[in-house]
Design brief:
132 residues; four-stranded antiparallel sheet; alpha+beta; Dna Ligase, domain 1
Length: 132
C-alpha cells in the first residue's frame, strides 16, 4: 500500500472523487512516501465505493470482514475498510483501539465517539499501459 485517502460521504461525481483521491493517495498521504514516476508501471489502483453509513450503538453489531467502520470524535473521523481488521488478525476491541489511535486518542477513546458501519464495492486495475 502506498496511500489510502478518500471521502466517507459523496461530495463529487464518482469520476471526480476517484481522480482527486488517487492523486492525493499517491502524493499526500503522510503515512507513506510520495509515489515516484518510475513506480507508475508497478502500481495497482484500488477504488472502494462505500455504501451510506449506518450509525450503531453496540460495537458487537460490527461484522468484521464485511463491515467497514467509521469512528467520529469531535468532528474528526477515522475509517477502516472491511478487509483491514482481517488483514491484521484484529478482533473488535483491537480494531476499535486502532481506530482511536488513528485519531490520536487513547485506545479506549473510541468510547467517546460515534461508530458507523458501511459496506464496500471494490475495483482494482493496474496502471500499466495507462499512458501515465
Amino acid at each position: 500500500m502506498r496511500g489510502s485517502i478518500g471521502f466517507l460521504e459523496a461530495r463529487f461525481p464518482l469520476f471526480m472523487a476517484t481522480t482527486e483521491n488517487a492523486i492525493a493517495a499517491a502524493t499526500r498521504d503522510q503515512r507513506f512516501s510520495p509515489l515516484r514516476s518510475e513506480e507508475l508501471s508497478t502500481i495497482t489502483l484500488e477504488v472502494s465505493i462505500i455504501s451510506p453509513q449506518i450509525v450503531i450503538e453496540n460495537p458487537n453489531d460490527i461484522v468484521l470482514g464485511k463491515d467497514g467502520i467509521t469512528l467520529t470524535v469531535e468532528g474528526r473521523s477515522a475509517a477502516f475498510l472491511p478487509d483491514i481488521p482481517a488483514k491484521y488478525g484484529w478482533d473488535i476491541a483491537t480494531t476499535l483501539a486502532q481506530l482511536a489511535r488513528q485519531l490520536g486518542l487513547a485506545p479506549e477513546g473510541w468510547q467517546q465517539g460515534r461508530l458507523a458501519v458501511f459496506r464496500t464495492q471494490s475495483y482494482e486495475a493496474p496502471l500499466r499501459g495507462s499512458g501515465m
